[in-house]
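Board work, copied verbatim: Rnd efflux system outer membrane lipoprotein nodt
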Amino acid sequence: MKRGWLIVLALGLGAFSGCSVHDRTAPGAMAEQAVDLREAGDTTLRPEVDWWLFLEDDTLNTLVETALEENPTLDRAAANVRKAEALLGAQKAADLPGVNLTGSAGRARTEGFMAGISNSWNLSAAASYELDLWGGRQALENQRALDREASLASLSEALVTVSAQVADTWYLRLERQVQLDLSEERVAMRRELLEMIEWRYGQGTATARDVYDTRTELAVDEVTLARYRTDVAVADHALSALLNRKPGGLEAVIPGISGKPLPTMAPLSQEPLSSRLILGRPDMVRAMLDVMKADEAVAVSLADRFPTFSLTAGYGRAGDGWEAGSNSGTVWNIGGELLAPLIDWGRRKSLVEADRAAFDDAVARYRTTALTAFTEAADALTRCRNGEREDARLKESLDASSATTAYVTSRYLEGASDYLTLMIARIAENEARSRLATSRRLLLSNRIGLARALGGSFSDTWVETYVTTHRETE
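↓ predict structure ↓
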């Protein structure tokens, strides 16, 4: 009869197990923080293709795919996902009854009236289970599950960061190579121009100032040439590191890198930025998960203020005996244990208040992260649109310089203009090409920044495939 009451009590307590004493407020708090940022009519969906494909650059596609397969930063992010998954599995296991096997054996000799040799042994299995009456352990499991989601968001952020760094570095490398080629051409023309000015000075048709000005311009161009050579080498080193290679030998990975032109891009549409894309950035997802984790922490600390009840059960066999005889039999036990805090001088209450303050901090950080995300996206869009206007003006400048060179060349061939005038026109066109190359690279960089500000986009299989692949290689 007593055993029946114990079973009824255990089942009754189990029915209440997992009931939380804390109402989750994270969803409402985050909705309130983003109510003025989310556009009600925005139904934009995140693109299903990898973001860098819109640049339509086969070499870039190869570089990014290589980096995403070999970059150690992504290996670290994937390892953190596996770590979070393991901790989640451990927490789930902790919510199940634990069973331990215990055993002992001994032999002893006694002197005196009861002298003799005695033997004893015991072998039993003991199970214990703490009922989750107040939802504390469930909240801990929820935290571990949120940790896994946060690690996946961090991996997504790492994918966006690495791919953007590869694209930005690649186009910097192309632009610096273009500038290097233009600079070498300009230095050669400056030297030829200096020879002509010096000859004209010897003939009395040019002044000393003309000679000094030309020498100054040549010296400046030679310094610029040296800087571009350094920039090309440094960009090569940075790109090699992103591809998980030591500096040097980039030409073997990207044959024919010299002479590749900077790609042109179609203008952006005039549609406003999507609030759904911005709020879906990986860092926004992590900020959201931080709020939810802080909410679960409050549930854990509140549950810790209430009594805990544990069930225990054991079953086995034991035996003892003397030289004259021995006996053995089955042993079992079932019971429960109650642990209730009586006096802790306000420690648990203070921990609850601390977790509630941490929740408020997480909510405020969510708002701060959202404002930063919207600001970065707006800045990137402004740079793109202003860059497009700047690029168009510089293209007009280059067209005008090219037309001037063509006109002066025809005049020179007709004998109506001298070679000096032609050289000056060619140098001016060279400088116009240099300015346009800088503008094109900045325009590409701004487009990359805009894609990054919107959280990038990857095909659905990228993140999970990356984690699965690295898990299978263990």
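Residues 1-17 have pLDDT under 50 and may be disordered.
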